[in-house]
Design goal:
By secondary structure, the protein is of the alpha+beta class. The chain is built from 5 helices and 8 strands, in the order αββαβαββαβββα. It has helices at about 1-80, 105-110, 125-135, 160-165, 210, and strands at about 85-90, 90-95, 115, 140-145, 150, 180-185, 190-195, 200-210. Strands 1, 2, 3, 4, 5, 6, 7 and 8 form an 8-stranded mixed β-sheet that branches. A hairpin with a 2-residue loop joins strand 1 (about 85-90) and strand 2 (about 90-95). The relative contact order is 0.12.
Length: about 220
């Protein structure tokens, strides 16, 4: 009888221990599930905020795209009205103006853009500018304003021998008559003419593509 009572107590103790162990396991599982639920809630909150941000960015992107399309339409319309001004050619970027200025005003304008009135150093370059000028008067950088010899404003050496074929017939002819600046005047290889620097003509600025890093794709 006594042994039976002892056996029952042992059994009850074992069951109690198993119950306590099961309870601890369930408690641990509950804590883990609660933590996972919290993490899921945080993740859902973050995803919701990201979606809201993305929607906002999409709205901004749509507005930007609409604005960009409007600018493209304006640019296309402008290109129908204004001749091409910026041209990349043989390692240089040229700006052909659409407005007239005196020679010194034109040079100041080119300097404000980080360049100078164009120099011309080869037959190929002379032909390129001649064709673009199309017979219109365009100031270039050659002058004798501050020197008794012809010089280029961008510091390029003036080669008299190479340049003699670029002057129009009988030019330059009036160095002592305030004709100290040079422009294209004819649609042919021999097209340079010296003129009064206060005259109002179109003009050409030039940049070196490599040093200026202005030319697209180069």
């Amino acid at each position: 009888m006594h042994q039976l009572q002892i056996s029952e107590k042992v059994t009850q103790k074992n069951e109690s221990q198993q119950t306590e162990k099961a309870y601890q396991i369930l408690k641990t599982i509950h804590a883990i599930l609660a933590f996972l639920a919290l993490m899921l809630a945080v993740a859902l909150t973050v995803m919701t905020l990201l979606l809201l941000d993305l929607r906002g960015e999409n709205d901004q992107l749509e507005k930007f795209q609409a604005s960009n399309e409007a600018l493209r339409a304006q640019n296309k319309n402008l290109m129908h009205k204004v001749p091409e001004a910026w041209v990349v050619h043989n390692g240089s970027l040229y700006y052909f103006s659409c407005t007239d200025k005196s020679w010194e005003e034109a040079e100041r304008f080119c300097v404000s853009l980080g360049s100078h009135l164009t120099s011309v150093t080869s037959v190929e370059e002379q032909e390129f500018i001649r064709k673009k000028a199309g017979g219109s008067n365009y100031w270039i950088g050659l002058n004798i304003l501050r020197n008794s010899e012809w010089r280029w404003t961008d510091g390029t050496h003036y080669n008299e021998a190479k340049s003699k074929d670029f002057w129009a017939p009988d030019e330059p002819n009036k160095k002592d008559n305030n004709e100290h600046c040079v422009h294209f005047s004819k649609n042919r290889l021999q097209s340079w003419n010296d003129n009064n620097c206060a005259s109002l003509f179109l003009f050409v600025c030039k940049w070196d593509c490599k040093s200026s890093e202005l030319c697209p794709g180069m």
